[in-house]
């Protein structure tokens, strides 16, 4: 379980963030501490030694940057959450994995958390957050996605996924290594995937663009594993233009 400390001075945003994490990541993430200002944030981080810190920049009694200066061992991944884009460059320079603007866009927030999970779980131990950032922005980390089943967490290379199919409130991942059933909707993963690699071709299917071999005029995409995936009539023009120009 990944330990998270949230440092946010606005009650509404604390509630929103906590709800999203509980809804989508309850099997992967545990909020072990919540800081309401800079002083309490320092205490929560020092006490709980989290894997991931979600940090507001303007905290009333100080800033998120000042908070970090007072933390000696920054052995955690870091995501900034703020209403001011003027701090973006500074946030990136000090090693933030992501920089999420308020008001929070749920899909962007989910993507940021997924990227952090992939970065954290891909290593046995966490180095300094600055090192995490430099590794995260390399291609190999961006292309990973974490999925959780009842008995395991799977770190998948996005390039190894042929396609995903909706099955009620579940999603089936069809990969080069086999099939994985996950208790999350296809809509959730459609928001998480790298959109330069995946495309929603049907309400029930998301396909990896790199595994599309050809389009059959009967209305199907033929993948590299010879599976046929239908294209909905509503999405046909958009999908064909995206895939074949």
UniProtKB/TrEMBL annotation:
Cite the Response regulatory domain residue spans from the record. Answer: 3-117
| Gene3D superfamilies named in the record | 3.40.50.2300, LytTr DNA-binding domain
Q: Where is the HTH LytTR-type domain?
A: 145-245
The record's section on InterPro entries has: CheY-like_superfamily, LytR-like, LytTR_DNA-bd_dom, Sig_transdc_resp-reg_receiver
Membrane-crossing residue ranges in chain numbering: none
**Gene Ontology MF annotations:** DNA binding; phosphorelay response regulator activity
What is the name of this protein? Two component transcriptional regulator, LytTR family
